Amino acid sequence: MKPSNFDYCRPDSVDEALSLLSEYGDDARIIAGGQSLMAMLNLRLAAADVLIDIGRLQELSECRQVGGYLEVGAAVTQAKLLNYPGLAEIQPLLAKALPNVGHFQTRNRGTVCGSIAHADPSSEIPLCLAALEGEVVLRSASGTRTLSAADFQTGMLATAIAPGEMITAARFPVAEQGAGYAFAEVARRRGDFAIVGLAAIARNGTLRLGAGGVAGKPAILEWQIEAGQLDDALNGFAWEMEGEDDIHATAKYRRQIVRQLGRKVLEEAKSCSS
């Protein structure tokens, strides 16, 4: 299928993009890489009268370290972040997860913030943002606000972006000294959306596990655990998310992945911590 007709605008600045958003309101959609939005438009699962292309705005095309965060502009591609100098030391979880995002070709077009805005529950980048307790920066013609990852993604393909707002950056906390990080997923084929994705962080005697692909949005569990209690904690976490059967896997299978692969990534994160 092909999308319904739309107008295309390519602003020269963020302020111009925000002005266009204010003018067209709910009839406009922001596009950067288009790897998620164009597929939905083609299938007519989404519609827009106007597409506002921010993909070539230089002010949104940079990664930088600011106040304990790695700030990723809304036009930064997944490939650019993956190749960011020192990423494995600055934020190891991102370095481990990004190679699982799509394929080489799609990472060269798809943006980090576009994935966050799309809010697919199986997507690796929103999972990392939630596990790391990152932030999303939103701007509109009337101002700027910053939301935690927990407040930003509200459900399956649903976010707290208000009319007239656009994401300008995502902020991922830089690695904590002595913390360990691990990521793994199960997918039908490499590059497919994960059936279940798992992100683990071990720090100061605390374990933190994020799971994507089971519930409507990434689920997070953090606990201090004694030896021998891990299996019970993972089992409880798997049941807490509930999950549903679909064409890719059953809820029962997803719960079992959380139990088995969850243990593996947590042990890997613990082994990397000090």
Summarize the structure.
With 274 residues, the protein is an alpha+beta fold. The chain has helices at residues 14-24, 37-42, 78-82, 87-90, 92-97, 104-107, 112-118, 124-131, 149-152, 230-240, 251-272; strands spanning 7-9, 28-31, 50-53, 63-66, 69-73, 135-140, 143-148, 153-155, 158-159, 166-173, 180-186, 196-203, 206-212, 219-223.
Main features:
274 residues; alpha+beta; Uridine Diphospho-n-acetylenolpyruvylglucosamine Reductase, domain 2; Uridine Diphospho-n-acetylenolpyruvylglucosamine Reductase, domain 3; Enolase-like, domain 1; 3 domains; five-stranded antiparallel β-sheet; 26% strand
Overview of the structural elements:
- With 274 residues, the chain is of the alpha+beta class.
- It folds into 3 domains: 7-53, Uridine Diphospho-n-acetylenolpyruvylglucosamine Reductase, domain 2 (2-Layer Sandwich); 61-173, Uridine Diphospho-n-acetylenolpyruvylglucosamine Reductase, domain 3; 181-272, Enolase-like, domain 1 (2-Layer Sandwich).
- It is built from 11 helices and 14 strands.
- The protein has helices at 14-24, 37-42, 78-82, 87-90, 92-97, 104-107, 112-118, 124-131, 149-152, 230-240, 251-272; strands at 7-9, 28-31, 50-53, 63-66, 69-73, 135-140, 143-148, 153-155, 158-159, 166-173, 180-186, 196-203, 206-212, 219-223.
- The strands form 4 sheets. Strands 4-5-10-6-7 form a 5-stranded antiparallel beta sheet.
- Strand 8 and strand 9 (158-159) form a beta hairpin.
- Helix 10 crosses helix 11.
- The longest helix is centred in the last third of the chain and has 22 residues, at 251-272.
